[in-house]
Amino acid sequence: MNKVTDQQGRAGSRIANIDALRALAALAVCLFHFTRSGFLGDNILSQICRQGYLGVDAFFVISGFVIPWSLHQSRYEFSQLFGFLSRRFWRLYPAYVVTGVLTLGLWYASSLVPGFRGAAPHLEHGQLWGNLALACAFNGTEWLVPVFWTLAIEVQFYVLVAVMFPLLVHRRPIVRFISLAAWVGVVWCEPSGNLVLAYGALFGLGITLFLRTAGCESGRASWFWVGAATVSLFWVRGIGSALVGLVSYLVLSCAPAVRLRGLLFVGSFSYSLYLLHIPLGSRIINLAERLPMTLGYRGAAVLLALGVAMVGAYLLFLLVERPSHQIARRFGNRWQSQLAPDDQPKRV
Predict the structure, then answer these.
(1) Which end of the chain is flanked by fewer CB atoms within 10 Å, N or C?
(2) DSSP code per residue over 63-115
(3) Which residues, including other chains, have CB under 8 Å from residue 224's CB and lie 6 or more apart?
(4) For 282-299, how does the pLDDT look when each residue is reduced to its tens digit (9 = 90+)?
(5) pTM recorded for the entire structure
């Protein structure tokens, strides 16, 4: 088996589980937001749902693998930075903007309902530009949707990993070592939570898997980095983050391919679900707070909120996210058209 075929085989087993892990991460975040403030009462189910915020950590591990692998498959060079960022822009931003507009529309519509007790709809210029530029954390304004802050972290990662990629795959082991050590160890400096550096060990787990899959690191070296990242996460972010990071790595690297069609289906539009679950599902939860405090009633409300969010998310995927992916692929094709025929990257 040649090197390219071997890499494709290893990557195939990783990629098979990405959608499944995305689905689980998105569902976990949904349950976290739908059950906050004791909506389900004080029971074991409520306590489990309180940990759903850790689904964000799983998303960061996934990005740590997927983005470098995409760069590797495209034979990325630093001169292609603008093309890469343009492609990521089209994959991320259209659904993000539509979600923001929909959130404002629902906010205004809700304010017209008799008995509305929330804040009157308003949007200051600073908040508008902060959301449009994914920079609310830096201008002191509020995100329209609470989960938007994670997209700002993702964008920072795109830029940083694109700049560092030549170092991560450098032919000299010492250069690769220092580059990966920076990702795994930067959390010890306790950077601001508004910066990607605070989540470097999570992204570092995904980068480690990429380097192993691409044949840049041996299995033994990879396990060293997995251990180092897990220790860093445990010490700085706590046992929950460490366990989710480690399990996410194991699911992508070692677990057999998931064949559950329903889970894979949800994974295919998990980004849209992640964006829309608060604007849509949380309104169901707000209405359901008038129901008796019983697990049956409240549990049914959570399932209804999840169902409404999933329907809306799938429509967002069909109408906005998937077309924007097609635009993003055009930028990828431009990259490849600039390469000589013998240099064309192999597809997985």
Answers:
(1) N
(2) HHHHHHHHHHHTT--GGGHHHHHHHHHHHHHHHHHHHHHHHHHHHHHHHTSTT
(3) none
(4) 999 888 887 777 778 888
(5) 0.91
